[in-house]
Write a structure and sequence with these properties.
- The protein is built from eleven helices and 15 strands.
- Helix 1 packs parallel to helix 2 and helix 7 crosses helix 8.
- It folds into two domains: 117 residues, ATPase, nucleotide binding domain (Nucleotidyltransferase, domain 5); 186 residues, Hexokinase, domain 1.
- The chain starts with a strand and ends with a helix.
- It has 316 residues and is α/β, with parallel strands linked by helices.
Length: 316
């Protein structure tokens, strides 16, 4: 049976064909969402470019909440449902997942070379695992072993309240908040969050500058020291460590924490030198426990497609 798998993010959509749990590498394509009217337009364009293959199954991952087979892309407003996927693909078996759920289903299909170690820790592959997505948006998923298969939870954790522990945190949260005065985790840990942190750092220094997240991260890789960029990445690392540590205590992921998404991959080279371990493990009398949680970054940009294929091929 030929399956169609897709990962619809806030900025890009990735699509491929799958046979069982295996994604056909030569079928993978990426589409820039701004160039298309919606998900159906992208899926139709993909199928046309591949000669209109007969699709029997389809699994689509969406960067937004999914309920009763329907979901809305949080950072673009597109709406997609399983009936619409079936109509455009011809598939008789269709599943719509939250994108972090797809990343959770992908973990068992990732090659070791597709992971970068961020923090060392024990490996307990049958224990609970936590996925943290850092990209255009921010979200989490928890992966539990359940009989022969997996139970992978959905969430919208990036829209929880941003933690603040001192006056600088409060000042940054107020700066990041929208018109409603609410500051979420996503407001600072997403790509646009890096831009907000940098704007706050430079504004507070009396030299306000506007830079894109890509330019900030590129400058962080440069040998030339830019104090504002360094401070931006340091603040980001501190927030990520604190929030990831809180999530670890919520879920006890002894099977590991996995960072996914474009921002996660771009930040990974900076995390060790900017003190992620100290911020992640700063949990008072529970600090020793925090050494039991390994953190790795998933470098495979198409991992969610493997998760979708794995979901379609899962045991009944």
């Amino acid at each position: 049976m030929t399956g169609l798998v897709a990962d619809i993010g806030g900025t890009n959509t990735r699509v491929a064909l799958a046979e069982g749990p295996r994604v056909a590498a030569d079928s993978m394509m990426r589409f820039h969402n701004a160039d298309h009217d919606g998900p159906s337009d992208i899926l139709a364009a993909y199928l046309a470019r591949h000669g209109a293959p007969r699709i029997t199954q389809a699994c689509v991952a969406l960067a937004g909440p999914v309920r009763d087979g329907s979901g809305r892309l949080t950072n673009r407003g597109w709406i997609i449902n399983e009936q619409g996927i079936a109509k455009v693909t011809g598939a008789t078996q269709v599943k719509l997942l939250n994108d972090l759920q797809a990343q959770g289903h992908a973990l068992d299909h990732l090659a070791r070379a597709g992971l970068i170690e961020v923090l060392d820790g024990p490996e307990l592959p049958r224990a609970t695992r936590l996925v943290i997505g850092l990209g255009t948006g921010v979200n989490t998923s928890v992966v539990h072993r359940h009989g022969r298969g997996l139970l992978v939870t959905a969430a919208e954790a990036g829209h929880a309240s941003l933690p603040a522990s001192d006056e600088d945190d409060l000042s940054l949260a107020r700066f990041a908040a929208g018109a409603d005065g609410f500051a979420s985790i996503e407001d600072l840990l997403s790509g646009r969050g890096i831009e907000k942190i940098h704007a706050w750092v430079t504004g507070r220094a009396g030299m306000p500058r506007q830079m894109t997240a890509g330019d900030i991260l590129a400058a962080g890789n440069d040998d030339a020291d830019d104090p504002a960029v360094t401070e931006t990445l340091r603040i980001y690392t501190r927030l990520l460590g604190r929030i990831a540590g809180d999530l670890a205590l919520h879920h006890l992921p002894f099977g590991g924490i996995f960072l996914v998404g474009g921002v996660a991959r771009a930040m990974t080279p900076h995390l060790a030198r900017l003190g992620l371990a100290a911020h992640f493990r700063a949990k008072g009398r529970f600090s020793p426990l925090m050494r039991e949680f390994a953190i790795r970054t998933v470098v495979d940009d198409y991992a969610a497609l493997s998760g979708c294929a794995g979901y379609l091929a899962r045991p009944a």
